[in-house]
Amino acid sequence: MLSTQQINKFNEDGYLIFDTQIPELILDSISERLQPYWGHDGKKFEGVPYADFNRIQDGWRVDKDIKTIATFPAILAVLKDLYGRQPKPFQTLNFYKGTEQKIHSDSIHFNSEPFGLMCGVWVAFEDISMEQGPLLYYPGSQKLPEMNFEQMGLEPDYKNYPQYEAYLEQLIVDQALQPSYGVMKKGQAVIWAANLLHGGSKQTNKALTRQSQVTHYYFKGANPWRPGHSQDKRAYFTPEWIPYDLPKPSLSERIRSWFK
Ligand SMILES: O=C(O)CCC(=O)C(=O)O
């Protein structure tokens, strides 16, 4: 259960770092199993829609521990506390090193009606220092207006993604936004709001790893759509939901539901 202070902080900053209590054994066993697939040694990670030298998408389909993290009860409970709605996990990304990904918000990839009913959760598989290229985010930027391609004067298409990134770089300068960095302990997670500007900072020591898992979630009641595929009309879509058993309601919750 989050404190009011933590919930207020998330609403103010657009992100929150918390201890997940995921057993180290789970984190370590995933790292060990993924080890042969990282780098360009030609070993293919079968059964997922995408994998390259530093990223495995939707490993939850074939690795039960990756799914365990995506559906970890303590993470789901934090999300429920923050949004007051049931979280619905739909995509996992596992990384080996820093991504140095340019600044973006997740809503440009996975938007929702109503706006904002989506988030990302990034779990550290090892202690993360500045040398490893930690996650970088701009506290408070989630309060900026919804920015799809049209709001930037761009045709809504992924071919304009570089211009989208350049627009945000300029916006950060214009608004004098100040970055924070996800320097975290193994087993900690950061949740970021769909509209928070974030990316990967420079990995200054390339010899180090920066193993992590991102899971993306929508919330109950969200109608998902993808701005980058919305040329003629909004491209609504149904994600491939990651199934999990809902926690059993407590006795007091059951009694309360009888009287509703
Ligand atoms: O892990 C990172 O460096 C960036 C991840 C990210 O930006 C994302 O998954 O949206």
Structure description:
With 260 residues, the chain is of the alpha+beta class. It has one domain: Jelly Rolls (Sandwich). It is 23% helix and 21% strand. It contains six helices and twelve strands. It has helices at 4-13, 24-34, 64-70, 73-83, 161-174, 251-258; strands at residues 15-19, 50-52, 55-57, 87-95, 111-113, 118-124, 135-137, 180-181, 188-193, 198-200, 212-219, 223-225. The longest helix is centred in the middle third of the chain and has 14 residues, at 161-174. It is globular, with a radius of gyration of 18 Å. The structure holds 2-oxoglutaric acid (AKG). Residues 93, 95, 98-99, 101, 106, 120, 135, 198-200, 212, 214 line the site of 2-oxoglutaric acid (AKG). Residues 93, 95, 98-99, 101, 106, 120, 135, 198-200, 212, 214 line the site of 2-oxoglutaric acid.
